[in-house]
Amino acid sequence: MIERIGASVREKASSFLYALAFFGRVVDRSLRFFRRRQVGYKVLVFQILFTGVEALLVNAVMAMAIGAAIIVIGSSLLPQFGQSRLMYDIMVIVITKELGPLLTAFIVIARSGTAIATELAGMVVGHEIEAYISVGVDPISFLVVPRVLGMVSSLVLLSIYFNLFGLLGSFLVVQLIKPIAFAEYFQSLLAALAPGDILSGMAKSLVFGVIVSTVASYQGFSVGRASTEIPVAGIRAVGQSFVLCIFADVLITLAQYA
Amino acid sequence: MSPETPSAPLLELRGISASSGGSEILEDVSLKVERGDRVAVMGPSGSGKSTLLKVAAGLEPAGSGHAYFNGRDIAALGQREELDFRSRAGFGFQDGALWENQTVLNNLALPLRIHRPHLTESEIASRAVTLLKTLGFTDSPGVRPATLSMGERKIVSIARALVLEPELVFLDDPTGHLDEDARDRLYAVVDKLVRKGVTIVAVTNNSGFVRRFALRLVVVADGRVTCDAPMNVALAAEGLGTAARSVVARLKRYAERDRLDEIEEKR
């Protein structure tokens, strides 16, 4: 019994150290990415296209729906407590600082996190990674770094889009329910919006981008030789990314308000 | 950068052990491959031949022991040394291991782009297409590997291993999935490598390939080297283990059949 527990602890500690070393190598290679002659730019462009551009529509729809829901709920509930003026503050906090980065990360986890993990896992099982090593291509530099950089920049951009659609796009939705003058809406929003709120949201997106891309890549590389391990890598990548993003969100929020 | 040792064997394995999922695949394997040597690694399925080749090529880590290229530990090579080693050693995979998200042409072009940066894109394409044609690849080089047969995948994998004109070539089951014509074309290409003095380490159980090209026979059984000798010595050896005896008997039968065929042809 004690032996089993000891072995399990040893195994966990060893995989944790391996994950740390993997992350360290990704950071090291990322810092060198733009300094060297690279063949990974194409992978970077494709990653931005897939993670950033192709997720725009679902991101925009979600942002507008959440923005509209906050306005509808806020405009009916807050006046009952004489706090109507807080509606825009709540909207800014929820969209730019909390839900924006987190929901964008969830969309990216579901689409790109699974894609990266299963694609890399498939490459491991098909010996494609060994083939890259055999011709002198570092898989971290060529496969992981462009995906990490692509996903981080896409998440930050998607987060900005979420803010735009959530704060401005929702105005259009509100017109159907409770018309408000644009000037009044826009001025109230600007008054509630502080640069720190936007920066905080972007910082979260950056951290989430690093988490999702690194976890997905790590899980992709963790498979053995069986093709049945490919979907397992995808599932693990999603689960761990969700947990780590929420954990990071709480930590960043605590650091801001504590 | 640790200096190369000119007197050292081109490739050397010292006390290599490797395991996977708790089971031992290789146990204390030592091997020396000199320049210009042509080594056939034979043995029963699951005996550890492919693992041995991958460890020797630095593609799989050894649990213990070291693999040396020109006297330098492959696992301890720096970034530049590793690039140098990779440009001088090609690896043809058993199952092709082609990059599925790239075209056949790009599968050959990527190593050239990395190791021959002075070449233009048209020169790279020309080299790749010429090599593919020599090996009898008749499909368009613009297709993706998913559309290829197993034999075609094998041809592209071998072409990728040879595209940098390496001095050491690892071939894992080079004749597997190849039809007679493709095999003949492969033999012609290997003939050229032999004339150039390229060192070849091939894992195969194809007696024809071994009889034609191998200068040395290494038999692996249950993760251990049970025979390592020049081909003529191995064929005449007594007191070999079961696996090595079976391999040698097969090679002798093949040689005898070949001899009878030749006599028949002369008549």
Characterization of this structure:
The complex is a heterodimer of chains A (258) and B (267). Chain A has 258 residues and is mainly alpha-helical. Chain A has one domain. Helix content of chain A is 85%, strand content 0%. Chain A contains nine helices and no strands. Chain A has helices spanning 2-33, 41-53, 56-77, 86-125, 128-134, 139-177, 182-192, 195-221, 229-257. In chain A, helix 4 (86-125) packs across helix 7 (182-192). The two termini of chain A are 43 Å apart. Chain B has 267 residues and is α/β, with parallel strands linked by helices. Chain B has one domain (11-84, 99-266): Rossmann fold, CATH 3.40.50. In chain B, 42% of the residues lie in helices and 23% in strands. Chain B contains nine helices and ten strands. Chain B has helices at 49-56, 79-88, 104-115, 121-134, 150-162, 180-196, 207-213, 231-236, 242-266; strands spanning 11-20, 23-33, 38-42, 64-69, 72-73, 89-92, 168-172, 199-203, 216-221, 224-230. In chain B, the strands form two sheets. Chain B has a six-stranded mixed β-sheet, sandwiched between helices. Chain B has a four-stranded antiparallel β-sheet with strand order 2-1-4-5, covered by helices on one side. In chain B, helix 6 links the parallel strand 7 and strand 8. In chain B, helix 7 (207-213) packs across helix 9. The radius of gyration of chain B is 19 Å and the shape is globular. The chains are: A mainly alpha (258), B alpha/beta (267). The A-B interface holds A 37, 39, 122-123, 126-128, 130-137, 224 and B 21, 54, 57-60, 82-83, 85-87, 90-91, 93, 95, 97-100, 110-111, 113-115, 117, 157, 160-161, 164.
List the defining traits of the structure above.
heterodimer; A: 258 residues; mainly alpha; 9 helices; elongated; B: 267 residues; alpha/beta; Rossmann fold; 6-stranded mixed beta sheet; 4-stranded antiparallel beta sheet; 10 strands; globular
